Amino acid sequence: MQNFAEYLEQCRYQTDALADKVTQQLFQENYFHSFNEQIKCIHTNQALDFSKFPKYVQTYFKETMILPDWADTKKMQVGSEFFNRNADNIILLLSFLSLPYCYANASGSKVLSYSQRIANQTQKRLYETAQFVFHVTSDNAFEKNGAGFICIQKVRLMHATIRYYINKSNRWDTLQLGEPVNQEDLAMTHLSFSFIVLQGLRKIGVSVSKKEADAYLHLWKVISFLLGVDKELLPDNELEAQKLDLLIQQRQFKKSDEGIALCHALFAFLEKSMQEAANPLARVKGFVSSYARFVLGEKLADLLAIPAASWSGENIAYFLKLSNGFQDIFSTSKPSKGGKDILNMIYKTEGKTDFSLPIR
């Protein structure tokens, strides 16, 4: 464990050399803004026309549009089917569990606070996150008519662009904080979408078999590898994921002004969204903070200064049994299978996001 802790410390100074190199060239050649406008219009893997880009951009797209040789497509399909069956719960766990979990990382929250991607445009950025998850976990994500590859390629460049801006600002203490959007923080984000979601599902009463858990972890291992995360940081099973989660929490999770502010902005948005909820129980004051404490646990909730729960864990569990789980918490009508109605009702956004690169 100690040796791996030392490895994680090294990972704080490692980023994504491939995406960083492309991003730096885009800026050096004054091509960034033009490139950004071009990729906004690309929504599927097959819509990507390599020929209209410079050679170094073509190389990036070609090298990152191939599944790793260790990817088990049958296992990935099982993982995709698991997501489809649980999409409504998973998408909403992103707001109540995955994002707050990331905000508990004090150093990582400084990056998010700097980029202002959550605090200033909460609704749009939450929709982007949820839409990304839908694209990369769909059964055709990595086929020509899917959108998995292109979404991952855009997000990878988005991370590199944020690093570029932060490092150019001369306001970042690399020695103390590590590189912005570094490998350890990317590993933590990977856990938030995979292992932490599995934990959250079980917490709210969803049965998850070992086969389903292993398949979902494998699907996200492939996704995160394509996002530029070191394979050594991507667990193969829940036991490995649990050990990594514990170690990262011990190293990086602490109370921070940035994390608290990000969580406050998120929950303020959720509270506002719930005013139109069809289920009257969901409109009871204190539900958001109570539910967050239920799925996060008291330790992480305290780090984020989430208000004390006004609902007991027993009452929340009882509510879930009475209702249709997360679907009834926010919906104004019966959601369709797969969670996309839930997505639109909560985030009030129709259609596709373009995953454009941030502009300074």
TrEMBL record:
A Gene Ontology molecular function term of the record: oxidoreductase activity
Source organism superkingdom: Bacteria
Annotated InterPro entries: Lcp-like, MPAB/Lcp_cat_dom
Start and end residues of each ER-bound oxygenase mpaB/mpaB'/Rubber oxygenase catalytic domain: 114-314
Pfam families noted in UniProt: MPAB_Lcp_cat
PANTHER family for this protein: ER-BOUND OXYGENASE MPAB_MPAB'_RUBBER OXYGENASE CATALYTIC DOMAIN-CONTAINING PROTEIN (PTHR37539:SF1), SECRETED PROTEIN-RELATED (PTHR37539)
Protein name: ER-bound oxygenase mpaB/mpaB'/Rubber oxygenase catalytic domain-containing protein
